[in-house]
Amino acid sequence: MRPASIIGAPTDIGAGTRGASMGPEALCVAGLVEAVARYGCDVKDCGNVAGPANPGLPAVDGFRHLREVVQWNRALNAAVYAELVDGRLPIMIGGDHCLAIGSISAVARHCREQGKTLRILWLDAHADFNTAALTPTGNIHGMPVSTLCGYGPRELVEIGGCVPAIRPDQIRQIGIRSVDEGEKRFLREVGIEVFDMRYIDEVGMRRTLELALAGMDESTHLHVSFDVDFLDPEIAPGVGTTVRGGPTYREAQLCMEMVADTGRLGSLDIVELNPALDHRNMTAELAVDLVESLFGKSTLLRMYQP
Q1: What does residue 111 show for φ and ψ, rounded to 5 degrees?
Q2: Model's pTM, two decimal places?
Q3: Is 201 assigned a ligand-binding role in the annotation?
Q4: Is 272 one of the annotated active-site residues of the chain?
């Protein structure tokens, strides 16, 4: 059985809407631990990392709650790195997407030390490539990708011990459909590979994933950062930043199934679930359903590749 570790990060410190701090509990209520165990994992529940409360303050110099965001991400970085060193697959459940700074910087450090090639799938409605100069809100959950690529305050970009924590060519963004004007230009300048919803509409989810996963081999560590607002809000209303026109249930399932087929999944984020905005925990239950597919649930024992 593959060892996996669930690490909770119950905070909405980087978000503009309160409530994502309740996400880890909602995912557990929806059966996340049992679901991962059901598909061949020896699951350890590490409990929650601790950090400061959300002070609800306005942005200062382009950042809201920078000091608190740094504290949460440092704690999470240490927790994720410890599980990787122990040979386990960390599953970070948030919490808002600023937490990916801590989790992915830990994964990147581990990959450097082990000589692994890192590939990141960023499943999200948003590119999260803002900076203090570009952001319209100061919310740091809109900045984790740029921060990981080295464009951010020293306290955050140095968390993983190497600046930048990742290179732009290590990340593939899928499902993007809401990007701020300055962010669009910056994405193009830096060279982030983005498969937006128009691209998915034109070529389909299968071709999109084939391209996003191309070039991986046995030395690849695949990290999936799954923001629940990746999904269309018709099926996943429990997020604070809904954007219409996202992947359908079947498109999302195909995405997860194709990731599972690679056998390369090494770490996972599940973020931005907001139970305060959900209907009878349906978004949490859907997220757990998709995670099951990510760990190998399938309708049939497939005899061929189409």
Answers
A1: -65, -40
A2: 0.97
A3: no
A4: yes
Q: Is 227 a catalytic residue?
A: yes
Please confirm, yes or no, whether 126 is among the known catalytic residues: yes
Would the annotation count 65 as a binding residue? no
Please tell me which residue in 12, 272, 285, 289 is annotated as part of the active site. Answer: 272
pLDDT along the chain (306 residues), means of 10: 96 98 98 95 97 97 97 98 98 98 98 98 98 96 98 96 97 98 96 98 98 98 98 98 97 97 97 98 98 89 53
Does 221 appear as a known binding residue?
Answer: no
The token pair that represents 184 in the structure block:
């669009």
**Lookup: tokens for 302:** 């497939």
- Is 278 assigned to a binding site? no
**Domains along the sequence of the chain with CATH:** 2-294 (3.40.800.10)
SS3 for 251? helix
Q: What CA–CA distances, in Å, run from 282 to 17, 29, 82, 172?
A: 19, 11, 32, 28
